[in-house]
TrEMBL record:
Top-level taxon of the source organism: Eukaryota
Recorded name of the encoding gene: Nubpl
Protein name: Iron-sulfur cluster transfer protein NUBPL
Subcellular location: Mitochondrion
InterPro entries noted in UniProt: Mrp-like_CS, Mrp/NBP35_ATP-bd, NUBPL-like, P-loop_NTPase, YlxH/NBP35
Biological source species: Syrrhaptes paradoxus (Pallas's sandgrouse)
């Protein structure tokens, strides 16, 4: 019948499309992976990732939490987590994460000089991301929070397709241009079948230190409207 032919065609098409995709393989010792992403740079994504990792650990002291900085060109986690130095190597030649505030951290910032720019092409970046994912001894983690670079490029796709991700959180400021890119980020995760847990609105309120008056410098409803349009929750 025509319906069974259509079904066979659909099956064949999906098999062909999935051929080029890497097999998802969990990171050893890691139970759940949550990624923090944004379409645009400079919206406070790394700050949110650090706070999410610290909050997960503070919420339940029995849980072990790690933080992976996947931003190769502009690593922020070493500064935000007040960490310096090179990771030690285990007998199995895996890197040991640096630890502060009870959070195990790994970043490209531990492997290069603080002021040295990373002037690399895509293939070298992908190789570095692969090492940060697979050649780190995380021990046993309940949660690994990944601070993604901004945008919807190679790194985001590679991370999403190589490891199982429990969910993604999209961070945006309320300006129209940032919201446009945040929408693209949410749609990208949907395309690669990563659940989007919700949106975080950042940098919308300035409170005067003298009179405590609040001013919404970039507007206060942008992310709310985007969440409504995409059918997503606002997480904070």
């Amino acid at each position: 019948s025509s319906s069974s032919r259509d079904e066979a065609l659909r099956d064949k098409r999906s098999r062909i499309l999935s051929r080029g995709l890497p097999k998802q393989k969990p990171i050893e010792g890691v139970k759940q992976v949550v990624v923090l992403a944004s379409g645009k740079g400079g919206v406070g994504k790394s700050t949110t990732a650090v706070n999410v990792a610290l909050a997960l650990a503070a919420n339940d002291s029995t849980k072990e939490v790690g933080l992976l900085d996947a931003d190769i060109y502009g690593p922020s986690v070493p500064k935000m987590m007040n960490l310096k130095g090179n990771p030690e190597l285990t007998p199995k030649n895996l890197m040991r994460p640096l630890k502060n505030y009870g959070i195990a951290c790994m970043s490209m910032g531990f492997l290069i000089e603080e002021t040295a720019p990373v002037v690399w092409r895509g293939l070298m970046v992908m190789s570095a991301v692969e090492k940060l994912l697979r050649q780190v001894d995380w021990g046993q983690l309940d949660y690994l929070v990944i601070d993604m670079p901004p945008g919807t490029g190679d790194v985001q796709l590679s991370v999403s397709q190589n490891i199982p991700i429990a969910g993604a959180v999209i961070v945006s400021t309320p300006q129209d241009v940032a919201l446009l890119d945040a929408r693209k980020g949410a749609e990208m995760f949907r395309k690669v079948h990563v659940p989007v847990l919700g949106l975080v609105q950042n940098m919308s309120v300035f409170q005067c230190p003298k009179c405590k008056h609040e001013t919404h410098i970039f507007g206060d409803d942008g992310v709310r409207e985007l969440a409504k349009a995409l059918g997503l929750d606002i997480l904070g």
